[in-house]
Amino acid sequence: GSAINAAAEARGPLLDRVGGPDVVRKVVEIFYTKLYADPRLITFLHDQEMMHLRAKQAAFMSWLFGPAGQPYAGKSMRVAHLRLIKERGFSPADFDLGMRYFEEAMSDLGAPEVIKQEVLRRMLPFKDACFTPSPQDAAEEA
Ligand code: HEM
Known about the structure:
This protein has 142 residues and is mainly alpha-helical.
C-alpha cells in the first residue's frame, strides 16, 4: 500500500500487524518446540504441567499482542519464577535464551524486524521483574 497506509498500519494492534491469531498460535507452537528442545531449558520445564503452563502462556500472549498501554493482569513474574531461580539456578541468561527463541520463532514465520523489536521491547521489563529481589520473596519461599 501507500506510505500513508504503512504508517497507519504501524500504529494498529500488534495482533493484526503480525498476521492475526493464527500466526500468533504458530509462533507460540514453534517457540515451545524450541524451548523444550533446549538441553538447558528442559531442566526447568521437564516436571512442569504443560497444560497449566500453556494456559498461562496463552493469557500472556494475548496481552503481549494486545493493545498497548494495558497492564499485564497475571501474577508477579518474580513469584512465577522464584522456585526455579532459588532451587535450580534459573538465570537472566536463561531468560534471554527464552526471548531469543521467541524472536527466532517470529523470524521463522517471516515477521518484520519492527514487529520483532516491538514484541521484545514489551517482553524486556518482565526480565527485570523476574530477577529483582523483592521483600515478598521470604514469604513465597516459606
Ligand atoms: C510462568 C518457566 C521464560 C513469562 C512460568 C512458570 C514457569 C516458567 C515454571 C510458572 C507457571 C506456574 O504458575 O506454575 C520459564 C522458563 C523459561 C521462561 C523455563 C525459560 C526461558 C519466560 C519468558 C517470559 C515468561 C522469556 C516472557 C517475557 C512468563 C509468564 C508466566 C510464566 C507471563 C505466567 C505468570 C502468571 O502466572 O501470570 N514460567 N519461563 N517466561 N512465565 Fe516463564
